[in-house]
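Running this now, will post back.
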Amino acid sequence: MADKPKKDRRRAKYSTWVCIKWALGKVWQWDKRLMLIAMAMIPVGVGLYVLNLYSTSWILQSLETNEPFGVIALTVVVVMVAEMLFRILKRLLDDADWIFSDVNSNRLWCELLERQYQRDYHLALDPEYRRLRDGADALLGDRGYDSPGTYLTKFATAAVNVICFVFFGSVIATLHPAIIALLVGGSLIIFFLQRRENQKNFEIRDEQNAADRRTNYLTWYVSNDPAVGKDVRLYNMADYLDKKAAITLLDIIRLVKVRQHNANVCYAVIFTIAALRDGIAYWYLIQGALSGTIDASMFVLYFTAITQMASFISDIINYLAGVSKQKLSLSDAIEYMEEDHNVFNHGTGIPLPRKKALSIEFKNVTYRYPEGDKNVLENVSFKIEAGEKISLVGLNGAGKTTLTQLMCGLLVPTEGEILIDGHSIFEYNIDEFYTLFSLLPQSYAKYPTSVAENIAMKERSLIDDQRLWECLELAGIADKIRSLPKGVESSVDREGDREAVEFSGGEWQRLLLARVLYRDAPVMILDEPTAALDPIAENRMYEKYNEITDGATAIFISHRLASARFCDRVYLLDGATFAECGTHDELMAKGGKYKELFDIQSRYYREGGEEDGEE
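Update: finished.
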């Protein structure tokens, strides 16, 4: 049996220094006070450790030398007061650090969202880009423990440990320098073991992120979406979804076991090395005490120093290992946030055309979705003249919606060129370019605001009420809105407002049509706009189509071929390309694929009418 090929080890793209520099730069940009807090934590932390090192030894030494009671009592009081002050200062600094670090974690989250908005829409479909986003999100895991704001805290803690390592090491060196070498040598071995464990865990992180996404979908989304809840009950899907979730959870458990196995092996070795390291140091110290070369106060001093020394070394090594681990997520975050993954032009573009209607041309356009096994569109060429009303028809999955998303600049052609008003879509600034289109999509978003803001997609103070009501009238939903107690101020968010209005699917399609009309863009794309309408409302939509699309270039998408009659031309998509093109009458006269599909769709209505007549 042939061996399975090994997966390439995925390494961080950026070095540790670059990651640290980026993280500190973010903190400096967000809130410089966090740096002052971190700097203040160093002397307070060192002072507290030094005080703990000498306090017991001082008291014992006073007792051994038969100091007066007043001196001993004063020593105890001074030590207690000093320790209390240091602990109060440390607590205040820790609380301030926690607050500012939490704020910085939220700022990182905002920047992640901002970067997502600034990136081309098509990147959301790219698995490699999603991997980077997952890595950046990992910085916010465990309450933001790995976010840039925590870097300074960890650095301050590490600085305390380094300073104390040097100071305590100088104390231990008076006992025997070899003890320091023993402690450092054992700790370095532990460091490399932990580093190896972190690398192994990083190699399976992408797989674990993917499993987490599936679990979140099957548990959180499915459990909280009312629409899904209806299906679960009507189709008795609970057992099915439980099994799907169980399979996904098994994947997570498998990956957790891999991580736990790595940790168990690592910590078993670490425990053994640490026991040998500390045991030898303590043995040497005890031998000195038994031989009488070390008195009680010095024994306590050295014992405390050795115990703390091992802790300092472990903390320094854990810090370095943590930096190595954190670097992996930071590297993905830098790649996600700082590198330009965009394909479209987000800089200065050519001026937008000022015409009411625009021409649209596809030249040998081919498109395949990331990880797709075949082309959705293949070598498609056509031109829509300015102001023309065309209909895109075809069976479900023919590529109609994909074609319009390419047209709008939401997707990037795999091959070929798309021209708007005679210019490539890459010549325009993409953010300005979007304003050329009004889109009524099949799947839509309900925003937690009022009816008015859901239509105008603007702040309430910027909305033209007269135009708003004109669009509602033309969309056939004005009477419904007038009947509401709050009219256009009615909320549509049932989650946040108990008095929100629940619109039907057909009513939402009319509201979305009003949104398209309010935008008044040169190109209007109506994707299955009558899918949720009743026959009367659908007929009214067809009757008003010319009025609705007046002066604009319009694309009407439907799988109902009867809706193509009122358009200037009809394009039939079939097999990733255009099978036929012409007016409805021309295609019917041609007797090809369009007529075949039209006859199949209309047969039901003809047969139903004949049966009604016979009755």
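Residues 21 and 564 are 60 Å apart (CA to CA). More later if anyone needs it.
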